[in-house]
Amino acid sequence: MKKHYLLLLFLVSFVSNAQIKGTVTDEKGNPLPFVTIFQEDTYNGTTSNEQGNYEFNLKKKEKQTVVFQFLGFKTQKIIIQTDKLPYSLNIKMEKESFSLNEVIINKKNNPALAIIKNAIASRKVNTVKTNRFNADFYSRGIFKLKNAPKKILGQKIGDFNGALDSTGTGIISLSETFSKIAFEKPNNLKEVVTASKVSGRDNGYSYNTARSSFYDFYDNTIDFGVQMISPIANNAFNYYNYKLESTFFDENKNMINKIKVMAKRDSEPVFEGYIYLVEDSWAVYAVDLDIKGYRMKEEFVDVMTLKQNFSYNNSNKIWAKNTQSLEITAGAFGIKFTGKYNYVYSNYEFIDAFPSKTFTNEITRIEINANKKDSLFWNTNRPIPLTIEESTDYVRKDSIYKVRNSQKYLDSIDAKGNKFKLLKVLTGYTYKNSTEKHSFSYEGLLNLGSLSFNTVQGYNFDSGFRYTNWKNQENKGIYTSISTKLNYGFAEDRLRVTGQFIHRFNNQNFATLYMMGGSSVKQFNPNDPISKTINTISSLIFKNNFMKLYNLESAAIGYSQDIANGVNLNGKIEYQQRKPLFNNTDFSLFNKDDLYTSNNPLAPNDFNTPAFEKHHLTKVNLLAKINFGNKYSSRPDGKFNIRNEKFPTLYLGYEKVIAANEKKYEFDHFNTRLTYDLTLGNKGVVGLNLKAGKFLNADNIAFIDFKHFNGNQTHIGQSARYLNVFNLLPYYSNSTNDSYFEAHIEYNDKGYIMNKIPLLNKLKSTFILGAHALSTPNNKTYTEMTVGLDNLGFGKFKMLRVDYVRSYQNGFQGDGVVFGLKFLNILE
């Protein structure tokens, strides 16, 4: 009975109200995928699916002409008698008869160069024609996984809610959207998503929005993480070689030039493939271009293939993009990923100007009932018919979703997972109630991932408990988390316990209440400039205990929320009792005769004098974060901020200490920070991080409360960028309780320079140039200059970086090499 029911659903998925439907094949009967199909002199169009099947609705009732267009094949026009609709129309396409008369094999007279020069000269004229428009937009995305292992790092990855078969292969994501879009170049967008469908989720929202689909080859660069050079960019001849492979005529007797695009240098951010240009107007007729992963610094991507097709309207004389596809292949460790995204643009309305308030900070809005459309709606309106694989996935996943979200199934899975075994006292235990959507977990006594070493605690590790309730998170954004962490240090023979409560009220302004408290060890610098992993290695192997710690007993309550678009305010009040700590171990694996420094950062050779006296106080902190020009996407289940990369982010902070056991510990501290990334087209990115602050009434405050700066004495870098660290600065050498200013600037060429240097371009790395400065009243200005290479590694794993650093403070201070191990961020 179940098999018959699934078969019925499968057949229903093919029911369509399309006026015309059929299959497009070549002369041998092979299906042709992604054939462009449109109503002549309109922007009403679609495309065939991977099996050559298509469905098409005419917008007008009188006799119409439907055009079938596919690169490499002769364009066909079919006159449709609307009084006979609906009916099936199968199309057999013939290969194009290309002309090679214009192709002259002569290095000094390459006809392709003249065509490209004309296209470059005509870019402005052609792009202005499509500067502003309204349109209907449809997208479909499918993502597949092949050969996925059963476990990764010992953890089961599951079957992705029924997506994977026994070989680890299957569709892990399939979704569709319909939108109404208004667009104005270069980047003004208003999109209203009217329908959204996600396979296996009856309440899901697709992320296939128009915002990520605008790839305009009339621009000099196209953003794929790095700025890829358009084959008709102003400077394209510096990057490409061209060959005119053939010419042919379209249905309107326009001569189309098929130009092969070839890279001059393999490592540059360039495309390869074909661009089709219309004679005389030099407009883009189509593109079929590959993007190799290493060229856009995405090593796990093998290749991306971008195809675009344009149609011409005789009434307004405009070539407009009607279909686009983006295909992705990627993988590592034998695991393969493939993705396919199809886009259809239709019903264009080109206008001279939009009303003044058309474009706001809201880029995308998903209508409330967008994910409630029934199968009749999708079968009637879907411009690209589903393939058998996609139809099967919808039917199968929707059935699995209903089963796996039933109370009976959830209770059975929970009952199995909730069984307690004595071994779980050591390894950890989780109790979960999936129906009520809450869980309780215990980390176990063998939480080896938390094991670390410092000279105060010796070897120490964590365990803990956590309760989480996410019953209303999916539709309202509400969740609650209560947790406690237990940390035990063997050399100190002391257990410390901390607790935390977090409750988020919604997904609209992200209002969040949090409380925390307990006993813990803290670094003097609250930014934790040296990680537990690096300190453990540095101490046990090199006997360098750079981490300096004190004991904190505290209780805090805080609240944060977005108070305006792009403005988040966070306030916290905290009682703190601070106590100095001393070294309790001299253990190391090597260099046993060497001595550790003391735990006093002010007197590294004094093992008896603490850095401060025991005291208590109350801190009030306010922090405002402002993303200028912030954009956002609105969904029924929340608001999602999208930072506007044109503008910087500004932080404004105020810290006040009150109710201290001695008046000398009380002070005021004003601080600000500005971060910004400036993209220089295809020439790289400049990152900027500026900080400044001023203490008031702080002459005798505790050293803990000084402004400490992120130094580095390990010669190991962990972050992807060094915009918040001084690479050779001793950790507490320039700490201040007065005014301060620090600046970090870093230029990453994204391959612009390195790609042009013989031999070095084989590394496929990027060139880094950095400058860092720190100014305080009681010290000479400290500066650093850095030069290095990023994106180093082996094969697909580009997780290394090397920098040469030279520092100055009252003259030359020193130099050194910093080795960037970016993968350590994953371990922390």
Report on the structure:
- The chain contains 10 helices and 44 strands.
- By secondary structure, the protein is mainly beta.
- β31 (549-564) and β32 (567-580) form a beta hairpin.
- Among the domains are: 17-92, Immunoglobulin-like (Sandwich); 111-402, no CATH class.
- The strands form 6 sheets. The chain has a 19-stranded mixed sheet that branches.
- The model is unreliable at 1-17 (pLDDT under 50).
Secondary structure category = mainly beta
- Sum up the overall morphology in one term: globular
Helix content: 10-25%
Mean model confidence by pLDDT? 91
Beta-strand level of the residues, as a percent range?
over 45%
Q: In angstroms, what separates the terminal alpha carbons?
A: 52 Å
Largest sheet: 19 strands, mixed
Number of helices: 10
Low-confidence stretches: 1-17
Radius of gyration: 31 Å
- Number of beta strands: 44
Q: What would the keywords be for this entry?
A:
single chain, 828 residues, mainly beta, Immunoglobulin-like, 13-stranded mixed β-sheet, 10 helices, CarboxypepD_reg-like domain-containing protein, CarboxyPept-like_regulatory, signal, DUF5686
